[in-house]
Design brief:
The complex is a heterodimer of chains A (195) and B (252). Chain A has 195 residues and is α/β, with parallel strands linked by helices. Helix content of chain A is 27%, strand content 32%. Chain A is built from six helices and 13 strands. The longest helix of chain A is centred in the C-terminal third of the chain and has 13 residues. In chain A, 52% of the residues are buried. Chain B contains ten helices and twelve strands. An eight-stranded parallel barrel of chain B has the order 1-4-5-6-7-10-11-12, surrounded by seven helices. In chain B, β7 and β8 form a beta hairpin. In chain B, α1 packs parallel to α2. The mean pLDDT of chain B is 92. Classes of the chains: A alpha/beta (195), B alpha/beta (252). At the A-B interface, α1, β7, β9 and α6 of A face α2 and α3 of B.
């Protein structure tokens, strides 16, 4: 199987592809609708600003293709801003709609130094099938607030308990960067690839 | 909760690691890619590479080093040293670095901070501040510590935050290379004056208490060191266990 890594101009793809190469998993990087329509597995990375990332996605006209793929049951992994875009909106970008795959918004940390930068421990829930209660690397000012808390597969604690990962059927989201979380992160992605 | 970070730093000249004292008198210290792997295996939370080569060929060599490290090491990598333009930043990030560290160029032209953080995101932009204590306050130094400016550190750190910096890498020139401990007063002053995470640098000896102090009194979020890790006078694992036993949150 090949994993399709979505390149929509928002973030450093190289760390994701370096990790996939290290795992010896075949991948293709694309921003084309046809490739997304044919994808067997999708990784949707992202870094930076929710609004800008959504604009980049819309500029390439692939938002609907991603939603269709999810609808079809294609295994889907959103990372960092990619995970945030699965939701409806973000306080970072008032008025901009996310993909809306899950109901809920993105909220900003109100206390502590922002962004949160560094390693924090996951607290997994019964909804989780691939993560463990280990340290992973975060760089985020915002976090998802799902309306349906049953999709939360892990929390972490940064002044408050916030959602660190979600999982629902074929859709997985990770607020942290598994590709920057050493062996722990690699193992999570390996498990996801093997599902 | 968020762990305090231990960050080994490598000075790289023409593709090889070197180490100096008080910014002078360089000694050879090993292959950067091998060192990066070793540190990652030993529990380093991030890595910083500073390119101290002054030539254009040297810069290209550095990009190759970054590419190699990024393929083999899966913890965050920050690259700094002589970065002048947004184009330089783009090349380094494309080579596989996660963050860049900017110093002289942004003191001379602070707008680069805004330009770069708009283009790449604040999380990629670390502002390195070289500080020396003068009779009345700490001042910002540029050009690898050779030139004093009239800018006070406390004012500069506020300004960079406004312009979109993501983190501060704070080096005490007074303490650097002495192995007598971090400059705790300087670190605390900056940590308490800023909403940005602060990486303390300069002065760490093979003394776990130096790190405990910089995290507690110094209120730093991360601690950077070079010689003690290169020359294996302090092991990262041993250090983290000490910190953990002293109730400081670290990733074990």
């Amino acid at each position: 199987m090949t994993v399709t890594v979505v390149d929509y101009g928002a973030g450093n793809l190289k760390s994701v592809t370096n990790m996939l190469e290290g795992l010896e998993y075949s991948y293709v990087v694309t921003n084309k609708k046809e490739d997304i329509d044919r994808a067997e597995k999708i990784i949707f990375p992202g870094q930076g600003h929710f609004g800008q990332a959504m604009e980049c996605l819309n500029a390439r006209g692939i938002a609907q293709n991603l939603k269709n793929a999810i609808e079809r049951g294609v295994p889907f992994l959103g990372v960092c801003v990619g995970h945030q875009l699965l939701f409806e909106s973000s306080e970072e970008a008032p008025g901009i709609q996310g993909l809306g795959v899950f109901k809920g918004k993105n909220a900003r940390f109100k206390e502590g130094k922002v962004p949160q930068i560094g390693w924090n421990r996951l607290k997994t829930t019964p909804s989780n099938s691939i993560l463990e209660d280990e340290y992973v690397y975060f760089v985020n000012s915002y976090y998802v607030v799902p309306e349906d808390s049953s999709i939360i597969s892990a929390y972490s604690d940064y002044t408050i308990d916030f959602t660190a990962a979600v999982e629902h059927k074929n859709v997985f989201g990770m607020q942290f960067h598994p590709e920057k979380s050493g062996e722990t992160g690699r193992n999570f992605v390996k498990k996801w690839l093997e599902l | 909760m968020l762990a305090k970070r231990i960050i080994p730093c490598l000075d790289v000249k023409d593709g090889q690691t070197v180490k100096g004292v008080n910014f002078e008198n360089l000694r050879y210290a090993g292959d950067p890619v091998e060192l990066a792997k070793r540190y990652s295996d030993e529990g380093a939370d991030e890595l910083v590479f500073l390119d101290i080569t002054a030539t254009n060929d040297g810069r290209k060599t550095m990009l190759h080093v970054v590419e190699s490290v990024a393929k083999q090491v899966f913890i965050p990598l920050t690259v700094g040293g002589g970065i002048k333009t947004v184009e330089d930043i783009r090349n380094i990030l494309l080579a596989g670095a996660d963050k860049v560290s900017l110093n002289t160029a942004v003191v001379l032209n602070p707008d680069i901070i805004k330009e770069a953080s708009d283009a790449f995101g604040s999380q990629c932009i670390v502002i390195a501040v070289d500080a020396r204590r003068e009779p009345d306050d700490w001042y910002v130094y540029i050009n690898a510590g050779k030139k004093k400016t009239d800018i006070k550190v406390r004012d500069w750190v506020r300004k960079v935050e406004e312009l979109g910096a993501g983190e501060i890498l704070l080096t005490s020139m007074d303490a650097d290379g002495t192995q007598q401990g971090y400059d705790l007063e300087l670190t605390r002053m900056v940590s308490l004056n800023s909403n940005l995470p602060v990486i303390a640098s300069g002065g760490a000896g093979a003394v776990p208490n130096h790190f405990k102090d910089v995290f507690e009194y110094g209120a730093a979020d991360a601690a950077l060191a070079a010689s003690i890790f290169h020359f294996k006078t302090l092991e990262i694992k041993e250090l983290k266990e000490f910190l953990h036993n002293n109730n400081i949150s670290v990733r074990l």
